[in-house]
Design a protein that fits this description.
The complex is a heterodimer of chains A (about 250) and B (about 700). With about 250 residues, chain A is α+β, with helices and mostly antiparallel strands. Chain A contains nine helices and nine strands. Chain A has helices at about 20-25, 25-40, 70-80, 115-120, 150, 190-195, 220-225, 240, 245-250; strands at about 55-60, 80-85, 90-95, 105, 125-130, 135-140, 160-165, 170, 200-205. In chain A, the strands form four sheets. A two-stranded antiparallel sheet of chain A has the order 1-9. Chain A has a two-stranded antiparallel sheet with strand order 3-4. The two termini of chain A are about 25 Å apart. Chain B has about 700 residues and is an alpha+beta fold. Helices cover about 35% and strands about 15% of the residues of chain B. In chain B, helix 19 packs parallel to helix 23 (about 675-685). Chain B is globular. The two termini of chain B are about 30 Å apart. Classes of the chains: A alpha+beta (about 250), B alpha+beta (about 700). Strand 2 (about 80-85) of chain A pairs antiparallel with strand 15 of chain B, so a sheet runs across the interface.
């Protein structure tokens, strides 16, 4: 299988100040993140040191998702050795009678530049793992089960979840710790959801996405050949746009 | 035996008459894989061997059994729910039969703690069953009765989730910190008006997927059962997760359609891809796929849980979501929208699409002046617009609500035509193409004897699509295109001989002599056993499995001898298996099925086919591999019928090979050799041994 991962950003990993963090985001990112923070009632102190950015992120194309939820099964298998969508770090929910493309929601952890879940943890269980590309991870041994990280996540559903089997919080670690998978994970490695998605609708990137780009367009001309829309909104028939005719003649 | 993985260990037995729920162990039934075979064993034990003649009997037991692979992520084997029940559709006798659907029901049933749910008795008033993380309750469905399947599912989703969390947010199923949590909506299987009105061709619908053959919807209707909802947060144990993930990724690399490549298999037919047709690309099961992307409405592929193909579609207008095969080529062609609208209507009414794919019989009867306004068979249906969407809509409603000629057609074509005094004539001359058990002809029974021999010995339309793709559709597509096949006949039969481990290419000789040969019967039995075990019990989807050849080109072209079925079963359950063992499990399944049907009164004479199969020669090209004049070719198979005497001889030889008597009854020796001594005793007590 082709390597679906992209090259790790060499500049990632250094600690940045809150000012650098804020200025580096751009307007949309600030709006989303601060919006989430305000909603949760957090205030960042000026002197606080923010967190080193993750060296890896998952981006998805919810319009390319095939609704099979294979990613959920592979995630829980790789991490927990059991096939259980409720334990999957990526959550795909869909309405089988809904209208494309809004009938599907693909919810993955954003490895946030400002990880509210990390900031909320009183014990350091939820932390930035500098040994593994600054991935936001949870150390189960330190988790006391207060669920503050779950509450702090600005997204719905919370990308931090309660592992009700093992009694601790958990979240996407980009497959850094997958005892039931033979591949090396984390930034620079592979991710079970990326590798197993039959539609190539999940991708690993090493550059921090804009807040609106965690759900992005991963559709290609091959997708157009299948007769499916490749425009960003997913509203245009490729035969109408001429894309399919173009690729058919190649 | 209990496996190291695959099963969650429990079966819920719900008595709708008393309202009591009993939970029993699934361990005694796991060795047959789950699904159809395990359902038959459970059926025998729950019924004490007294299976009613049809599913309308209040004592009829209806079993939904997941497989050991359900919900595990095994590609195109994680989704199937397979039902075992006394049918109502088969004509003249329905026999105990099976039906099933994909989607998400079986995985969620296991997540809720059950490998199977068995339904006994009948409720006094309409009910639905609510299963949440091991808890089973029976709820009133009086306010749901009359709703279509879509509204029923949507209403139950909301009732189970309540107003605690929107769809997509985490919901605790128990209300405590350590209760299970899910972002997903429940999975509901429901019947529509057709099932409520006990239409014999009615389906159970779940997430747009339909279990139709056998009339399961009518069986639920007779039980006053509107729906079953399952919701759970548990996991499925897997014996060797590392091996499972590695196998999944390896198989995808070999067989997955490369969605980001342009025209991966150039085709001589504009808009038609060998890859999509024969190796199955995303969305390929919506038949419009083949028609040069006729679908103008934006859409995405829609896969059942764990699928690696995602063969269906979801559309911007939601019409036809999840439509599959014949559902998508129903009447009313207008470029797609009407077909999809009718497909959704079939789904909502809860009718089995396959039985309504061909309106030809009624149209011909109208043209002959027999059916129509003021005719002998009076009907107000718009016969002046045959095959229009309007005709389809009015006809389907008439069947579902038993109005107009739908009142008779709801009993199935065989019973309706018998009532009208036309069955013998029309089934004899082929105008009513229902070759065995009253089911619509799927592929030509005079030629594709894998379907017809095994179908006649079974209880319904056979369904073994992936096998049929290779032997029939491959040569048909290239014949249409007017080009040489990428896999010539001689090569294909060699691949299949090796993949099946039968060894002899003559096993796949469909010539006039070949279809009666010992080699051909060996292959018929191989396919029957593969079908019974790996497809209908273990739950591999027959639109994806097995693999005999690939058409991708490059390094992966050619034969496919991977036998991933064995490897996946071992990874999930921990049990080593191979072709010989799996074939024996298939034989065991065929035998217990046969034994239960013998207890229902089945005899050798019931293993029969309609008159046209023997009397009316084929008149159109129908391509199959054949060994003729010392050479392999894809033959047109023109002017062919089955021979009655040879068919009787085939039956005798198949019975003997299966370990059944000349009367078609499994022998005591056979049954005891399979560990079914208790079934032999039941047959003896019934005077059948």
């Amino acid at each position: 299988m082709a390597d679906k991962n992209q090259t790790v950003d060499e500049t990632a990993g250094k600690e940045i100040s809150r000012r650098q963090f804020v200025t580096g985001l751009g307007g949309a990112g600030i709006g989303v993140i601060l919006g989430g923070l305000i909603a949760k009632g957090f205030i960042l102190p000026d002197e606080a040191v923010a967190f080193p950015v993750s060296q890896g992120y998952l981006v998805v194309d919810s319009k390319k998702c095939g609704e099979c939820q294979t990613c959920m099964l592979m995630c829980s298998l790789a991490h927990d050795g059991v096939a259980n969508p409720s334990l999957s770090r990526i959550q795909v929910e869909f309405d089988p009678y809904g209208k494309f493309p809004s009938e599907v929601a693909v919810n993955q952890c954003h490895q946030c530049v400002y990880p509210a879940c990390v900031d909320a943890c009183p014990t350091g269980a939820n932390h930035v793992d500098t040994k593994h590309g600054n991935v936001r991870r949870i150390d189960p041994a330190k988790c006391i089960g207060c669920e503050r990280c779950i509450q702090a996540c600005p997204y719905t559903p919370s990308r931090v979840q309660w592992n009700f089997e093992k009694k601790h919080s958990q979240k996407c670690d980009l497959c850094v710790d997958t005892p039931y998978w033979n591949e090396k994970g984390g930034p620079g490695g592979k991710q079970a959801c990326v590798e197993s998605c039959p539609m190539n609708a999940i991708s690993f990137v090493s550059v921090t996405p804009a807040s609106t780009d965690y759900d992005t367009n991963l559709r290609t001309m091959g997708w157009a050949f299948l007769g499916m829309p490749v425009d960003d909104a997913g509203t245009q028939d490729p035969t109408v746009s001429g894309l399919q005719a173009a690729v058919s003649q190649k | 035996m209990a496996y190291a993985g695959g099963f969650v260990g429990k079966i819920a037995v719900v008595d709708l008459s008393s309202g009591k729920v009993e939970v029993i162990s699934s361990e005694p039934y796991q060795s047959q894989g789950g699904g159809w075979a395990s359902g038959l064993e459970l059926m025998f034990d729950l019924s004490g061997g007294k299976v009613p003649a049809d599913g309308f009997d209040p004592q009829a037991i209806f079993i939904m059994f997941a497989s050991g692979l359900s919900g595990t992520g095994v590609p195109s084997a994680s989704e199937r729910t397979i039902c075992t029940f006394p049918g109502v559709q088969g004509f003249p006798k329905p026999w105990i039969t099976r039906s099933g659907w994909g989607g998400r029901f079986a995985p969620m049933m296991k997540a809720a703690g059950f490998d199977a749910i068995a339904l006994k008795g009948a409720a006094a008033k309409p009910v639905w069953i609510n299963v949440v993380d091991g808890q089973v309750t029976i709820e009133s469905a009086e306010d749901l009765w009359g709703l279509g399947t879509i509204a029923t599912q949507e209403e139950i989703w909301a009732r189970v989730r309540g107003d605690k969390a929107a769809f997509g947010d985490w919901l605790s199923t128990g209300g405590t910190r350590d209760s299970g949590r899910s972002t997903l909506r429940p999975v509901v299987a429901a019947i529509g008006p057709a099932g409520e009105n006990k239409v014999r061709t009615s389906a159970v619908i779940s997430d747009t997927r339909a279990g139709g053959q056998g009339g399961p919807g009518a069986v639920w209707g007779a039980k006053n059962l509107k729906a079953v909802s399952v919701y759970g947060t548990g996991g499925v144990p897997v014996a060797d997760p590392k091996a499972l993930i590695d196998l999944r990724l390896e198989m995808q690399q070999k067989y997955e359609y490369p969605v980001d490549e342009i025209n991966p298999q150039p085709s001589p037919v504009p808009g038609l891809s060998y890859w999509g047709l024969l190796d199955r690309g995303p969305g390929f099961a919506a038949m419009d796929y083949y028609l040069n992307a006729k679908i103008k409405t934006p859409h995405r592929p829609s896969g059942c849980m764990g699928c690696y193909i995602c063969c269906r579609n979801s559309y911007a207008d939601a019409l036809g979501n999840g439509q599959h095969c014949v559902e998508s080529i129903f009447w009313g062609s207008d470029g797609g929208t009407n077909e999809r609208r009718i497909a959704t209507m079939l789904n909502d009414l809860g009718l089995d699409a396959f039985q309504y794919m061909d309106p030809g019989v009624l149209i011909r009867l109208n043209q002959a002046g027999i059916v129509g306004p003021g005719k002998k068979i009076d009907s107000k249906l718009p016969f002046d617009r045959p095959q229009s969407a309007a005709w389809a809509e009015e006809f389907l409603k008439a069947v579902a609500y038993r109005t107009d000629i739908g009142a008779d057609w709801a009993e199935g074509p065989g019973r309706a035509l018998t009532k009208w005094g036309l069955w013998e004539e029309l089934s004899g001359n082929g105008s009513a193409p229902y070759p065995y058990h009253g089911y619509t002809e799927h592929y030509d029974p005079r030629l594709e004897v894998d379907w017809s021999y095994a179908g006649a010995l079974g209880s319904r339309d056979r369904n073994c699509h992936s096998y049929n793709w290779e032997v029939h559709w491959l040569p048909t597509v290239v014949a249409i295109a007017g080009v040489e096949s990428d896999v010539p006949a001689e090569t294909l039969v060699q691949y299949m001989a090796e993949a099946t481990e039968l060894g002899d290419p003559m096993c796949f000789d469909y010539s006039e002599q070949g279809i009666y040969s010992d080699a051909r019967l060996a292959a018929v039995r191989w396919i029957m056993h593969y079908d019974e075990y790996y497809l209908q019990s273990v739950g591999f989807c027959d639109w994806a499995w097995p693999h005999f050849a690939t058409h991708r080109g490059g390094d992966t072209a050619g034969k496919a001898l991977d036998q991933y079925e064995h490897k996946f079963w071992t990874a999930v359950t921990g049990e080593e298996t191979d072709t010989e063992k799996s074939q024996e499990k298939g034989r065991k399944q065929a035998t217990i099925e046969r034994a239960l049907q013998i207890l229902q009164g089945r005899t050798r004479d019931d293993d029969t086919m309609a008159g046209y199969v023997f009397d009316v020669p084929t008149s159109a090209p129908y391509f199959l591999p054949a060994y003729i004049n010392g050479k392999w070719t894809y033959d047109t198979c023109l002017n062919r019928t089955l021979d009655r005497d040879k068919w009787e001889d085939v039956k005798t030889r198949l019975y003997k090979a299966e370990g059944w008597s000349e009367k078609g009854v499994p022998t005591r020796e056979t049954l005891e050799g399979m560990g079914y001594g208790r079934i032999a005793d039941a047959l003896a007590a019934a005077g059948a041994l």
